[in-house]
């Protein structure tokens, strides 16, 4: 039996929509196609989640936006699956054209120490205990592998890609508080294959790359993305005197992140301030107009440079061994 309930074909700038059964208490709404990653589709998913929050449907309990999906939980004693789908169809008709979508979006600035000792320790443990011949481990780090895989001339060019763009939190998932960030500037696009097999330990605050997504680890955990730096804690399970938020998770879906480079010594001091309750995170409330992204991508100079960088990256990948 197919899990697909029904589909709606793309129209008027809106993506194709597939409705799937997700148990007896949820509907999974998929937008567009699997590949490639499309920020326009992600914006639509966020707009759908926001619309349901602002215009609640009786019986719908919670919505969770994904990269190109929306998971809708409902109470079957209050509303049937068919009525949930009908309400979602009506909602999609109410969402404006992509160029008219404006989303709540905070701006956060985080420090990052590249090639830090904690990330190196995680890479070294992996090399010793799991895979001594891992091609993504070069001189005790993943950074030089990332440089080669993306066809970049040196580390500084890689760091520049990280620092020069705003990173959009496309979704939070895999486990609570893990943001998956995509660059809003297509020229900053970078790609990486995952570890094979996965890493047994990743330090809290580690910044890593897998596929097109950059992630920040909120807790110590396993992991399979390529490590290249560390930032401040982004989860706060024990409230502190100067807590910067009510929610224990710092980065919310739709937030925009920028990084500033610091030395590891500077980062250690900033992390100490966080743990002592003396640090104020730089958070600016705001909104994001999708038209800004569409305008950037439509600029011939931006599009041309992004395509040249993509071609260079694809050529480089042919010469680099995948884990």
From TrEMBL:
Cite the SUPFAM superfamilies for this sequence: Cyclophilin-like, PH0987 N-terminal domain-like
**Presence of the UniProt keyword Nucleotide-binding in the record:** yes
The Carboxyltransferase domain extends over 17-251
Supply the SMART domains for this chain: AHS1
- A Pfam family (short name) is CT_C_D
Q: Which domain of life is it from?
A: Bacteria
Keywords, ordered alphabetically: ATP-binding, Hydrolase, Nucleotide-binding
Quote the protein name from its UniProt record.
Carboxyltransferase domain-containing protein
Q: Which organism is it from?
A: Amycolatopsis deserti
Organism lineage reads as: Bacteria, Bacillati, Actinomycetota, Actinomycetes, Pseudonocardiales
């Amino acid at each position: 039996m197919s899990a697909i309930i029904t589909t709606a074909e793309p129209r008027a700038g809106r993506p194709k929509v597939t409705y799937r059964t997700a148990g007896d208490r949820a509907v999974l709404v998929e937008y567009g196609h699997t590949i490639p990653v499309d920020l326009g589709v992600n914006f639509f998913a966020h707009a759908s989640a926001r619309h349901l929050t602002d215009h609640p449907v009786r019986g719908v309990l919670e919505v969770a936006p994904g990269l190109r999906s929306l998971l809708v939980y409902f109470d079957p004693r209050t509303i049937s699956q068919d009525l949930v789908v009908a309400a979602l169809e009506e909602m999609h008709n109410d969402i404006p054209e992509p160029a008219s979508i404006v989303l709540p979006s905070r701006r956060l600035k985080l420090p990052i120490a590249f090639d830090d000792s904690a990330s190196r320790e995680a890479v070294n443990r992996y090399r010793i205990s799991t895979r001594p011949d891992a091609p993504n481990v070069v001189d005790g780090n993943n950074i030089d592998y990332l440089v080669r895989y993306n066809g970049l001339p040196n580390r500084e060019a890689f760091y520049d890609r990280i620092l020069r763009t705003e990173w959009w939190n496309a979704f939070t998932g895999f486990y609570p508080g893990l943001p998956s960030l995509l660059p809003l500037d297509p020229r900053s696009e970078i790609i990486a294959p995952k570890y094979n097999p996965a890493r047994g330990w990743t330090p809290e605050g580690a910044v890593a790359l897998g596929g097109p997504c950059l992630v920040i680890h909120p807790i110590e955990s396993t992991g399979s993305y390529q490590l290249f730096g560390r930032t401040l804690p982004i989860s706060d399970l024990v409230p502190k005197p100067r807590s910067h938020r009510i929610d224990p998770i710092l980065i919310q879906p739709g937030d925009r992140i920028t990084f500033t480079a610091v030395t590891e010594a500077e980062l250690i001091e900033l992390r100490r301030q966080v743990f002592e309750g003396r640090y104020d995170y730089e958070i600016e409330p705001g909104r994001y107009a999708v038209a800004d992204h569409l305008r950037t991508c439509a600029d011939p100079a931006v599009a041309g440079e992004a395509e040249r960088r993509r071609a260079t990256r694809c050529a480089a990948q042919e010469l680099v061994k995948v884990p």
